[in-house]
Design goal:
The protein has 469 residues and is an all-alpha fold. Helices cover 59% and strands 3% of the residues. The protein has 20 helices and 2 strands. The longest helix is centred in the middle third of the chain and has 28 residues. The protein is globular, with a radius of gyration of 28 Å. The termini are far apart.
Length: 469
Amino acid sequence: MPSQDFLSSANTKESKVLPSSIVNNTLSEGYQNQQLVQSNNLELNIHTAQEILYKFFIDSVKLYTPAAVFQEFKNLFIALILPVNSEVIQAVHTIVLVKDELEYKNLFKRCCYILLNNWMSQKQHQLSLELVQVLAKEQSSQPPLDNPLRILKVWLINFVQSKDYEEIKLFVSKYDVAQTHWTSRYTPFLLATQYADPSNSEEQRQAARILSQQIKEQYKFELAMYTSRCQSPAFKHIIYHNPTLLGDEALNLIKMILVSRGALSYPRLANIFITQSQNINYKQFKESLLQYLFYLSEKTVLVKIIQGKLTHRLNLISPENDGETFNKNLLLRTSNYLIKYLTIQNSGKPSAIFRIFASQGNPLNLGILLLKLVLISPHSRLHLEVCLARLIQYYEDEKQDDCQWFINFLEICQISLTIYGENVHYNLVSMSNTQQISQENSDINNCRIFSQQKISKKSKKSIKDGEES
């Protein structure tokens, strides 16, 4: 939207949010503006000013239509037209007088997410796309020279050139059907960096968490439908959407992940390991952890190199706690440390051990190691997603064909984390004897994948109570 002069009441667009009795006050007289700014008894601190504006938009989304609130947002932040609300006017002028661009950035970003949360709940996705488009136009705009709120436009232009704007674009990208960049497939991982960051506003963290979960649920549903029906004779004439980028290899990959190691599936192996780790000290736990991570692994040159490096690294982790009894805090700390060691450096570049895996061209081995860590430490999943997001950010400028190994690795992580999610249970069943198969007798070509919804303990109790009544 073109910039409008704050002092020109003739160009003021009528507010669709506020009652007409308090609409057309744009402080058209310079004297009024000066008196308001200099009035000591109305002066606010910056945080009080921010809270007034937050409340203004929170109240607006509850009372008015999404389109009307969006217009008010554009009036205030884009056209620099203030509603005739004495608190809001004073709050805006306080922000101008304090001249703190960082606080303005925090204010503007949180107001954006107040609107985005509301639009998401009301499925007004087009407005989310329009917000990004409106902000994009500000990159080429010029701050008005004769407007007392000129600095707000300067800060807005800077915001649109910042990482914070890119995060908003990421949030909205799910609703952009024209989105074709390969990184868009991994939006849930990228959103993890937003809701895991305590410095972000609650609105931004909540919006990122909800959207991430929605995308994961959709992927989970599509994967379950694809795996259970694409090999079923009853559906042989129907082509089901494959949500992965692995083509027909996706089925073989899932079977390889599901096939039991000996008599143990990955979750069962993880449970046994945690049970056996009780009442031992931390040094003993680290020794047992290596055995768990490489249980029944083929003793290839790569595996021996990785095992040696992890052995050395584990000896360096918190040696001062070696005599301490193993506990959940040490489990989380160790799992998070190893996840980071296997993926990313502090500099944001892939770790040395990640590059070793990449050079060998087999992403499955690394994916299984990370899966095993998440299975013994479920709270480490968020940390893994953040590490994966940082890897995606490192490779995002590469063409898809130039980083195919990395994309295959992400597909493996996405599939394995979905398979061992909370509410879907996958089984690999041999069609010759209808028994769940193990590694020793695995003929995966003669197996089918079955998935079913898990029933939580709470749901089971509700069903039982219903039957008894």
